[in-house]
## 1
Amino acid sequence: MQNNPDNNEVYYSGGFSENTSHPAFPRRVTACELRAATKRGSRSVTSSSFPHVVSGNPESGAWMPVFAGMTGRSLIQRRQPGNHRNLFIPFLVLFLSVLAILTPRLSWAAPEQEIKLATLAPENSSLMRIFNEMNDELLKVTDGRLGFKMYAGFVLGNEADVLRKLRIGLVNAATFTNTALTDINPDLRVLQVPFLFNNYEEVDDVLTKIQESLINGFAKRGFEVLGFPELGFIYFMSKQPIADLNDLKGKKVWAQADAPMAKAFVDSVGVSTVAITAPDVLMALQTNLVDVVYNSPYYALVTQWYTQVKYLTDLPLSYIGACLLMDKKTYDRLPKDLQQTLKKVTSKYVGLLVKKTRQDNGEALKAMLNRGVQKVVPTEAQARGFRDLSSKVVEGLGPQILPKDFLAEVKAELSTYRASHQ
């Protein structure tokens, strides 16, 4: 809570945003309202009078919840002669509360060199907290010479919008899913071949061996790679159980336009496809416009898709990776020591992002199963049917869509790994 000396008003928030500790839409309480509340049966204003009292500058947006949920104690008491001790306690609590909130995060002035970074991670999400921690560490180890200015969520538009802004210099770096980058680096399509990977161990081994090739491909096109986060594996989710190819026939299957490899596979089955954008899928499921969709468990959970499906096929359809890219000209202008530090810090935190994403997907899958979605586990013969059809689809794609040399390299690395882990 804060008195405004210009108009004798007190600021407070009437509520909190979901999943965030910051108040939403603060309004002002006049001194008259405060006095009226004080007269209602007592000489003090408690937390029940104004349930979410906050401190901070309302103009700057630096709001912090204080005293929320306290009852039975006066938050503000009318000044009375000899009542100074009663005033001391709440203001001491206020000071300690603000101190506790501010202490964990370091406060830095604007860095000497600032990288404008766009990410699709929602504000106040666990993933965005990792990005913020990455910025804190970068500022710390460079003594404030280098840091990020973050643009979270879809504040700058979708991936196509952000990519355009990166190309013209409105932002300096951004995270993208591989599906948004395949026109820049077609090699990424190889990693999305349906049923190519069986588990994350295979993904990690192959990525370690081919990442230099991917980095060089982006460098030729004017981008510096700062790391490879991911969305993870996507799975079929459906209204009826899907255990083999025959189960797909006669179904209305969503065709995601920006996932060309998965779309090519679905088209090859001979089913009826419905091409709509991801935000429209929930309504399509509710109105029975589609029967089968595919995405990561975490995405299905947060978008509520899982409420409209009954089954999840426990066979990874495709792996969807991601890239943290930076404009190469901006990167090259950094001093060598800052380039090295930037790579070291981003590598560390991209690793944490991957770990957290996999954890979130695992927990989301458990939550879906606990809420009634059933897991369908194909037999080995049924799984082989999916993989054989995928191989036929890949063979029919031209090199302008799927780089065959890079595909052969990835398959060779994958065969070597599987031979050593039988």
## 2
Amino acid sequence: MSRRPRRRASLAVTAVAAAVASLAAPAVVAAPAGAAVVAATAGATVLAAPVRARVVAPAPSHTVVRAGTERVLLALGDSLAAGYQPTYGTHAPPLDPATGYPDTGYPDGYAADIASARHLTLVDLACPGETTVSMTTVPAKAACATTYRGELGATSQLRAATSFLARHKGAVALVTLDLGANDVDGCVSASGISSSCLATRQARVVARLPAIVAAIRAALSADDPGARLVAMNYYDPFLGVAYSPGGLVGTVGATLSLAATTAFDRRLGALFAHARVPVANVAAAFHTYAALPLLVYAGHRLPANVVYVCRWTWMCPTSGSSSHADIHATTAGYRVIAAAFERILGPA
């Protein structure tokens, strides 16, 4: 199976990792008692407007994936693992000229950053919109189903992953996984949170995610016993409603969302700990529980956790911008996520 390695020397993942490490974030998600979005009203610091996505064209060269030569990062999960940004609209990732399938994700995603920093070839099977249900059944996007079926003879992302591992024994060095956010995202919006929906959907994640992790671990044990599996928790994009619509409605919505994210990340942490899978602490990297210091974004004085979400996601378009609020990370945000993985992985 032909592959092209993802090399982008301009990505300073190691430097970003050091910067995130200097924040002294906790190793596990644990929101302080009474954590809230509202903070003091003094000592603000001015930050720049959001970083816009930089689309990088796919490299034309490729190499052959063979056990013992080219080493692979296999990225699994949802749109964050695929590296999606709203600038891509409804387009699928670019085709890999080596295989004819969109199997390397979108440019500038966190998986591409990690692969570049660790000199790995990226095989990105993640599917935007994927849930713990669609991961094992019908893929969330028809384009994903086409890729899985055509390239790997598989009917789901999980089967595609195990098929890839079986076909490339000894080639995979690292598997990354982020899954579960789409199960609960429909319960949270700028207008409010459905507690009954959250309870039902979180129960579904608790019931289904362990079996998915176990299947991946079993395939790795059989085909790539030396490979590492690392998962991640989630930042809270809906902190951005404290910026827009802002005011009391935005503050209350952001505070409720933070409580929901805290509970969900704790459940993910417990599930992955039970499975002995290390977790990249993306919540901490995004300062999700740090309301102080107060910072300034687009002329608004806001809690730190709100400003970092505004800077590192598309949730807070500024006045005059043609973009719309979107929960996905920007290029800068994906590098922060990559840095959280690097803290777990250690030196390359």
